[in-house]
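Final report, closing paragraph on structural work. Over the funding period we assembled a curated collection of sequence-structure pairs, and we close with a single example.
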Amino acid sequence: MKDFNRQFEITGKSQETNIELENSIHIGLSHSTETIERKKSTSINRVQVPVTVTGKSNKSPPLHPVEERFKDRLDEAKHVCLQRGVNYNEKWKAVIENGPPTDRFVASESHHAMMCLVLKAGSSTWNDFFWRLRAPEEAEKYNFWERAVHGNAYAFKSLSLDKKKEILQDPNGLRLVGVRHPFARIISGWSDKFDKMYFYNIWFRTFPKLLNYPNKWGRWRGPLEGHFMEWVDFASYLADHGHNLTNIDAHFYPATAHCDPCRFPFNFITKLETYDADASWLIEAKLNLSTAMLKPKNVNSKRSKDYVGLIKEYFSKLDRNVTKRIYNLYENDLKTFGYSFNLTTLTAGGWVE
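Its predicted structure, as stored:
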């Protein structure tokens, strides 16, 4: 089996997929903002220039296509929060008052920027970026990813509550959450973390219920390649035990478990599927910095593959009941972030070029 992560590296250059709606479960709004975007003949590389007219006008200049997409994503997330019965304004007030938890958050005080990192959704790249944003000289000197992770975590923990409040309330501040189609995340997580080269003993000692499923723990022979638990067996475990987060690693947590827009006042939702356009616009338009600061980790357009096809390939191997239960585990993610999955055709969607 080829390394899935190499197949699944995405920068938003994959072709937009038309999703068959008949006999499907529709995710999000009845008129999905991401679907509406497909009808707009705009390009992420084209800046719309307002036409100058004489006389007074109360109309705002048109948004850049990427900025408009960000707005649509946030509007949809807020709508879904209300559908879920969550008063996001009240939740946001509580977070502003007490500050977000240290887990999963990084920040740059000088740039009034904050981000909640979702594992297997470009978190390595964004961790590195915030390191360069927060401590450019250190990042340039050491260029050591683990130092970025630990340094960012310590810096956020050390940030005073007043400073966190400033960023959370700043109308011009940058409050990000980076996401990815949840089924892409769990496939990528399995391929990476259950690879034979990984320290697999940790998994079975930390999550002993894994031993109740077919695996190769303690019985591995031969070359160091392949996985010590097959995808089908891991998916069965996830379907059976994923409802309790103590039974799974954080790489498989739903994004809304830690980075829920219904709880945190994010003002931008980035998607790994449109990473190039999203990241470039945010860095240039909102931070007034050069995109040279971006050092992508495992995000390479030259090796990007058929995103929809890979999800279909892996989920076609599963029992329908297993697929349905995994769907239920990540339903909030699908709805909140505007993703979709057709249980009949196994077609994933929710992103555009």
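The chain has a mean pLDDT of 80. The chain has one domain: 4-32+63-187+248-349. We thank the funder for supporting this effort.
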